[in-house]
Structure prediction request, 316 residues.
Amino acid sequence: MATMKIPMTVPSPRVDVDQLFKAFKGRGCDTSVIINILAHRNATQRALIEQEYETKFSDDLRKRLHSELHGHLKKAVLLWMPEAVERDASILKRSLRGAVTDHKAVAEIICTRSGSQLRQIKQVYNNTFGVKLEEDIESEASGNHKRVLLAYLNTTRYEGPEIDNASVENDARTLKSAVARKHKSDDQTLIQIFTDRSRTHLVAVRSTYRSMFGKELGKAIRDETRGNFEHVLLTILQCAENSCFYFAKALRKSMKGLGTDDTALIRVIVTRAEVDMQFIISEYRKRYKKTLHNAVHSDTTGHYRTFLLSLLGPNV
Prediction:
């Protein structure tokens, strides 16, 4: 369930763009007006606002926002404007080809999206940037980490609820053998099972592995793999089990300790606000005994704080 609140009676795009144009006039801009409009419009409404702004003022709204806003607020608003597939493609491009490769962000986008979403992302990526997503992964990732990302992108997985118990038990045994220290970890087997099986199947394998061998599959993966390869396998496993807890944990990490990882904080809130943020908020409260709203309020300031809290909706 989404959390951002849309007014009962939504103004027409023409009314919205007139208000935005006025907010941009003069020295500085009226940031509150920008937030009050854009943080309370869904993707379709935002697209109509962009079209109307360009038609009426012969100007690109995103470019205007880029010039008028600053800091983390600018990053958050500009990431909020596109529809989901375009946004995911842009996150992947920045994460792969930016000054520093953000492998965790790449894993987050690729391993939490459905097969149909990944196919759309690949198409938009190629159309927008003139290069295939797989080519940038080939360039920026390496080893088993690269192999699992490419396999997950290009494997057609069953996404329904049915499972075959015999296949589940066989996979549990195969994984036990694959991660056994004496075999030095059969990485290709891990990649095949983690990228080919449905999420429902992996959840059943995880439970069966625990019952058969008295050990958590996640712990076995952590014991026998390392680095980005370990991270991407655990991301797949955690999202199969409970994707909302995965995102709650990612938000917690972004605000834990000294300083805030604003890139991760913005990414998760913006990408999930129209999808399942209500469930993520519930998971956050259940796991950490604190509301996500209060955590974000403590770690952010000013209009940036106001915008993120607007996307989170009421603190209930």
